[in-house]
Design a protein that fits this description.
The structure holds 2 protein chains of 2 kinds.
Chain A lengths: L9 H7 L18 E17 L11 H7 L3 E9 L2 E7 L7 E2 L2 E2 H18 L3 E7 L3 E8 L4 H11 L8 H11 L5 E6 L5 H13 L3 E8 L1 H5 L6 E5 L6 E3 L1 H25 L3 E6 L4 H16 L1
Parallel strand pairs in A: 3-6, 3-8, 8-9, 9-12
Antiparallel strand pairs in A: 1-2, 4-5, 6-7, 10-11
Helix pairs in contact in A: 3-4, 5-6, 6-8
Chain B lengths: L1 E2 L2 H7 L5 H11 L2 E5 L2 H38 L1 E3 L13 E6 L16 H16 L3 E6 L5 E4 L20 H14 L5 E7 L3 H4 L5 H10 L6 E6 L9 E12 L2 E11 L8 E7 L2 E7 L5 E9 L7 E6 L10 E6 L5 E7 L2 H11 L3 H4 L1 E6 L6 H6 E7 L5 H12 L3 E4 L6 E2 L5 E2 L3 E2 L5 E4 L24 E2 L2 E2 L3 E6 L4 E8 L2 E6 L16 H13 L5 E5 L10 E2 L14 E5 L2 E6 L12 H6 L6 E5 L10 E2 L1 H25 L1
Parallel strand pairs in B: 4-5, 4-7, 7-8, 8-33, 16-17, 16-18, 18-19, 19-28, 29-32
Antiparallel strand pairs in B: 1-3, 3-34, 5-6, 9-10, 10-13, 11-12, 11-14, 14-15, 20-21, 21-25, 22-24, 23-26, 26-27, 27-28, 30-31, 31-32
Chain lengths: ~300, ~650
């Protein structure tokens, strides 16, 4: 069945086509690409000299150095490789929350589709892992432009449901992805911040380049309710009757603290943290993300 | 607490629960929101719930109090006075009895107004607050009722000013009962403002049980509110005229005034009176033993004067109404006592006893035939002594006319059981071991003490045989067994009295004169008023349609003769005096006055000198202030939340 693809914005994709997503660390890819690899390769960028050891190809010996030093040195060049990006999409029921600007999952879907388009467009591999408390979809990273269709099809079919087990699913992913890769987490991150920090450090340990898009609705930030409201947990559990006027102050304080903690934890674990508010312009969000990374690379 | 508009109060009061109801309805009408960040809601709620609940309860309580305050304000509560504790609202019919008797002219200690003014002020204020549909005033001076168009009319000094009249409270209450019965089934109240003078209220009268039962039987038995102005009047002296008679003293024409004086200042010095006689004013010092007492004061009159008037006044004090007595005298004329006796010797003796010194006293005795007393003699006489068998109808009618015209009549028993129709009956003679006179009225009247303060020797009067009289009349003296010795009754303008003993030696020792001489003299003086050209009446009495011209310069009242004074009319003078009862100091305790209305809802307020107003005040200002304060606090609590945003 052909899933709907309303979340794909060709104009946005066209505007983003001029930009590239740069990895912040060395990548290990299968193909030659635009990203630096930890391995030595045949690119034009000199890397280092090292002593010849038996087994090295003789054609890599730098004879000019031998002429000066009468020692055999092998000239190494940096290897450029492609990037494997894993889009990690939270599909728990909390992503179903709908504010005035639509559902969080729809925003996340558009974000993921745009990022996938950028990555595939620059020849990088893109995979998708969608989960709630279990892994729902796991599409391995591929570089084929046709792979975009498969990704979009899955993205179109995703419907948030069930509780989330963010930490477990991310830990599993960190263990599953062996080579260095770009991990882009798209989630509302409703989880214990300390545990999330540990998970982020897991990715860091594995030398993955971690980016986090924290999807938050404007209503969650501003808490714009004034009449007695029954708050029904989207992920189940008891509902809470509350007078928003009475709890606003405490809610705003708690939520603000949570956002601060998430940001701090992400930075501490070298994650590229982006607060993605659903009323935010998606193009500016993504372009800022891409430009920052490009600038960082120099 | 009284509410002037209780209906509004009861209408609004149920809405006191409205804020709570709205709150509960709002709670039931929660807006449902599917929410992701539940942890934050839960944490925020747990940290703010206790304070929020407290504030919520506070706001709800304030709102409920706001409605309560609004209901109270619209109910127009009264507090602090007469109406403040009655617990009822505005009556349909309000009947007010205003005691305007002389004793209400007194002022309590430090009072600015008289009791009557205080009462009128309080009643007017209270009636204005209650706004009854109909207000009917029963005036004690006229005993007439009048519908008031507005309560302020009570303050009219012209219509309802001070008087010297008496107050017959049982009669006024009976009139009120009639008015309330006419009022129908609406809610009614009876308000009485009085100083509770015992003589006005006659608390021992059997009328009261009938009156209270009558009031109770009315549809929607009226509430009775009694404003008792029982405050003592400090430093009040008074002077009362007990009797006045024109006499001859050694040929000199005089008017003898029998006075009762209670002085306000300390005893020991003569009492300084202000005498006005025939337009001439002078001071007159009289000796008074003790703080109060009776005195006789003779005032020399012009020999050929056609008549005149005068007054005696005490200095101004707490109650000016009892400081002055008025008197008048007619043209000089000879007076006589008619003696009708079946026995000539007894007749002569009685003549001697009645007129012992004709030349000096100007009174002579004239014997008349008991079978046919000459009308010409009777017309000139002031006293008729009847010592003969009961006359026939024609003679009895003639004698009755003599009495009703103002003459005095004394009837002595003749030794046989007899009956004078319309007057008295006498039992057959009876003897006994102990027929001494045991008690008699000696404070005033025919058997009063002498001017020097000596009692008549009635206790030493020997009575051998008695014939107990019966009939309508007041016993002035009694035997030890309670049987009357002397009966007195009024008949028309005159008076009739009879004794239980005759003057014969077998009957008593009355012939000695120690009793009879003063008794007959006083009867003669009473009767002499008939021909004096002076009409004596109590204030507020019936003037018989006389055309009156006021002579005394004291205050004017409505009706005119409700204040003491002297008037001239075609046939002579009219003297209106303060009734005797108004000089009685005895007051009925307020509680006892309330008990007279047994079975009714009685609200009592003893006014201790409120100096204007009933002491009631509307609480609306207070309640309104409370309302505003509650609104400010509620607003603060309500607005505080958005500010915190």
């Amino acid at each position: 069945m052909q899933a709907h693809r309303d979340f794909v914005d060709p104009k946005l994709n066209a505007r983003l086509g001029r930009l590239t997503l740069e990895a912040r660390s060395l990548m290990v890819g299968s193909f030659t690409g635009r990203h630096k690899s930890p391995h030595r390769g045949s690119s034009v960028d000199f890397s280092q000299y090292r002593k010849y050891v038996p087994g090295d190809e003789i054609r890599h010996i730098d004879w000019r150095v031998y002429g000066r030093s009468e020692r055999f040195y092998v000239k190494e060049f940096e290897a450029d490789t492609n990037l494997r990006c894993h889009l990690v999409l939270d599909c728990s029921a909390s992503m179903r929350f709908q504010g005035q600007n639509g559902r969080k999952i729809d925003f996340a879907r558009r974000l993921a589709a745009a990022l996938a388009h950028v990555l595939l467009n620059q020849g990088d591999g893109v995979g998708l892992a969608a989960f709630n408390d279990k892994l729902l979809h796991d599409i391995p990273a591929r570089t084929s432009p046709r792979h975009l269709n498969a990704l979009l099809e899955v993205l179109g079919k995703i419907e948030p449901q069930g509780k989330t087990d963010l930490v477990k699913q991310l830990d599993d992913l960190a263990g599953r992805v062996r080579n260095r890769a770009l991990i882009i987490i798209i989630s509302d991150l409703f989880h214990n911040v300390e545990e999330l920090g540990k998970t982020f450090s897991h990715f860091s340990f594995r030398k993955h380049d971690l980016a986090v898009f924290h999807i938050v609705d404007r209503a969650e930030i501003d808490f714009p309710f004034d009449k007695p409201t029954r708050f029904v947990g989207i992920e189940g559990g008891d509902s809470v009757d509350a007078d928003p006027e009475a709890i606003r102050q405490d809610y705003l304080r708690e939520f603000g603290q949570y956002l601060q903690d998430i940001r701090a934890t992400s930075l501490r674990n070298k994650a590229d943290y982006r607060l993605a508010v659903t009323d935010q312009d998606l193009e500016s969000l993504i372009s800022n993300f891409l430009l920052d990374r490009m600038n960082r690379r120099g | 607490m009284t509410f002037l508009t209780p209906n509004l109060l009861w209408m609004i009061l149920p809405f006191i629960g409205l804020p709570i109801l709205i709150h509960l309805v709002n709670r039931m009408r929660y807006t449902q929101v599917d929410w992701a960040a539940m942890d934050f809601i839960t944490r925020a709620r747990s940290s703010s719930t206790s304070m929020a609940k407290l504030r919520e309860i506070l706001i709800l309580a304030l709102r409920a109090l706001l409605i309560l305050a609004l209901a109270l304000a619209l109910g127009r509560p009264l507090a602090g006075g007469w109406l403040g504790w009655a617990g009822s609202g505005s009556p349909d019919t309000l009947v007010i009895i205003l005691d305007r008797s002389a004793s209400m002219n007194g002022r309590g200690d430090g009072w600015k107004n008289t009791k009557r003014e205080e009462a009128a002020d309080s009643l007017a204020s209270a009636a204005a607050q209650l706004s009854p549909r109909r207000i009917v005033l029963i005036d004690s001076a006229t005993q007439q009722s009048r519908t008031l168009s507005k309560p302020e009319e009570l303050r009219s000094a012209v219509l309802y000013g001070d008087t010297d009249s008496s107050c017959d409270m049982p009669r006024l209450v009976e009139k009120a009962r009639g008015l309330l019965a006419e009022g129908g089934s609406g809610r009614s109240e009876l308000w009485i403002a009085s100083d509770l003078q015992a003589s006005s209220w006659a608390p021992r009268s059997e009328e009261w049980s009938r009156l209270s039962a009558g009031l109770k039987a009315l549809p929607g038995a009226p509430a009775v509110r009694l404003l008792a102005l029982t405050a003592q009047v400090p430093g009040n002296g008074r002077i009362s005229l007990l009797g006045a008679a024109e006499i001859r003293n050694r040929g000199q024409r005089e008017i003898e005034l029998e006075l009762f004086i209670r002085r306000a200042d300390k005893a020991g010095t003569p009492v300084n009176l202000i005498l006005i006689l025939d337009g001439q004013q002078r001071s007159l010092a009289v000796d008074l033993k003790g703080q109060e007492g009776r005195i006789r004061q003779s005032l020399r009159l012009p020999k050929d004067s056609p008549g005149g008037w005068g007054s005696l006044s005490l200095p101004v004090d707490g109650n000016p109404a009892d400081n002055t007595v008025y008197f008048a005298y007619g043209p000089a004329q000879a007076d006589s006592v008619a003696v009708a006796s079946a026995e000539p010797r007894a007749g002569k003796l009685l003549g001697l006893l009645a007129a012992p010194a004709p030349d000096l006293l100007g009174v002579k005795a004239v014997e008349v035939n008991p079978a046919d007393p000459a009308a010409s003699i009777l017309s000139r006489s002031s006293l008729l002594i009847w010592n003969a068998p009961v006359p026939g109808k024609a003679v009895a009618a003639r004698i009755r006319s003599f009495v009703e015209a103002g003459g005095s009549l004394i009837v002595l028993p003749t030794g046989a059981s007899s009956s004078w129709p319309g007057l008295f009956d006498w039992k057959a003679p009876e003897g006994g071991q102990d027929l001494a006179i045991h008690s008699w009225e000696e404070s005033r009247g025919l058997l009063a003490k002498s001017a020097s303060g000596k009692s008549l020797a009635l206790d030493r009067l020997v009575v051998r045989q008695r014939q107990i009289p019966s009939g309508e009349g007041v016993p002035l003296a009694r035997f030890a067994d309670g049987q009357p010795f002397l009966l007195r009754r009024s008949l028309g303008k005159g008076l009739v009295c009879t004794l239980a003993a005759g003057i014969s030696p077998s009957s008593s020792e009355l012939r000695q004169g120690t009793i009879l001489i003063p008794l007959l003299r006083r009867l003669q003086l009473e009767g002499s008023r008939r021909n004096s050209g002076v009409t004596w009446m109590n204030c507020g009495g019936d003037t018989g349609g006389l055309s009156l011209q006021k002579l005394s310069a004291n205050r004017d009242s409505v009706p005119a003769t409700s204040s003491a004074g002297v008037w001239k009319h075609d046939a002579g003078f009219l003297v209106a005096s303060r009734p005797d009862g108004e000089d009685e100091a005895a007051l009925l305790p307020a509680k006892e006055a309330g008990e007279l209305f047994r079975g009714l809802d009685v609200n009592l307020l003893e006014a201790g000198g409120s100096h204007g107003g009933s002491g009631d005040f509307e609480l609306w200002r207070l309640v309104f202030g409370l309302l505003l304060a509650l609104m400010v606090v509620e607003g603060f609590l309500t607005l505080r939340r958005p500010l915190s945003k």
